[in-house]
From TrEMBL:
<dbReference type="InterPro" id="IPR036388">
    <property type="entry name" value="WH-like_DNA-bd_sf"/>
</dbReference>
<keyword id="KW-0804">Transcription</keyword>
<feature type="domain" description="HTH gntR-type">
    <location>
        <begin position="12"/>
        <end position="78"/>
    </location>
</feature>
<dbReference type="InterPro" id="IPR000524">
    <property type="entry name" value="Tscrpt_reg_HTH_GntR"/>
</dbReference>
<dbReference type="InterPro" id="IPR036390">
    <property type="entry name" value="WH_DNA-bd_sf"/>
</dbReference>
<dbReference type="InterPro" id="IPR008920">
    <property type="entry name" value="TF_FadR/GntR_C"/>
</dbReference>
<keyword id="KW-0238">DNA-binding</keyword>
<dbReference type="Pfam" id="PF07729">
    <property type="entry name" value="FCD"/>
</dbReference>
<protein>
    <submittedName>
        <fullName>GntR family transcriptional regulator</fullName>
    </submittedName>
</protein>
<dbReference type="Pfam" id="PF00392">
    <property type="entry name" value="GntR"/>
</dbReference>
<dbReference type="InterPro" id="IPR011711">
    <property type="entry name" value="GntR_C"/>
</dbReference>
<keyword id="KW-0805">Transcription regulation</keyword>
């Protein structure tokens, strides 16, 4: 009887570590749009063999976080204006619904936490730190949306953030805008008032106009 080889748990753990770290780096804009990667280079960076590096790349390519050409070239996504507009439209559909579902659980402790995160967003804006801005901006949104208790919807939103990451960082770095927090203040005011229509409008405005302010 032929024995079936069992998966190596060490390889699985290495693959998950590479995948999670690369995913976070891409989402936060730590890679430039179009930046080329290699399996060998990823393996060297993370001190893993080719197999976990290759599996991590395949998973990220399936999510749209990396582009994998027929020739095997791996790169961070470099989005066209049309693609940016499409992804912004997806955010405008998903995120107001997530915020509305979170509203019944938006107690004052959550609002205070969001205010503290938004203060850190302002600090990164003042420093013109694009990666720090992107990271804390997404933390603001994720912290609110986790209260929606809608994991499938949040996973879809995170996939959109993932695809936008490098392009968002590049756009922000090219054109510093000091007034990006005004939409967050609208969100906080709507949460404090328990006003669902105002909250939906504030989130939709944030995810569409905020991106437009950066890319114009």
């Amino acid at each position: 009887m032929t024995s079936v080889p069992r998966p190596n748990p060490d390889t699985g753990a290495a693959h998950e570590r590479v995948y999670r770290t690369l995913r976070t780096q891409i989402m936060h804009g730590e890679l430039n749009p179009g930046e080329a990667l290699t399996i060998r280079g990823i393996g060297k960076t993370f001190d893993v063999s080719m197999t976990p590096a290759r599996e991590a790349v395949r998973r990220l390519a399936a999510e749209g976080a990396l582009t994998l050409s027929s020739s095997g070239r791996i790169s961070a996504p470099d989005l066209s204006p049309e693609r940016i507009e499409e992804l912004a439209a997806l955010r405008a559909l998903l995120e107001p619904e997530l915020a509305a579902r979170a509203l019944p659980r938006a107690h004052m402790a959550l609002i205070d936490r969001l205010r503290a995160i938004n203060a850190r967003v302002s600090e990164f804006v003042a420093k013109q730190d694009a990666v720090g801005y992107l990271r804390t901006n997404l933390e603001f949104h994720r912290t609110l949306y986790l209260r929606a208790h809608a994991p499938a919807m949040l996973a879809m939103a995170e996939t959109v953030w993932l695809q936008l990451g490098p392009t968002m960082r590049a756009l922000y770095a090219r054109k510093h805008r000091p007034d990006l927090q005004k939409h967050h203040r609208m969100i906080l005011a709507a949460l404090a008032a328990g006003d669902e229509p105002a909250l939906r409008l504030a989130v939709r405005t944030d995810v569409t106009q905020g991106l437009k302010m950066i890319s114009d």
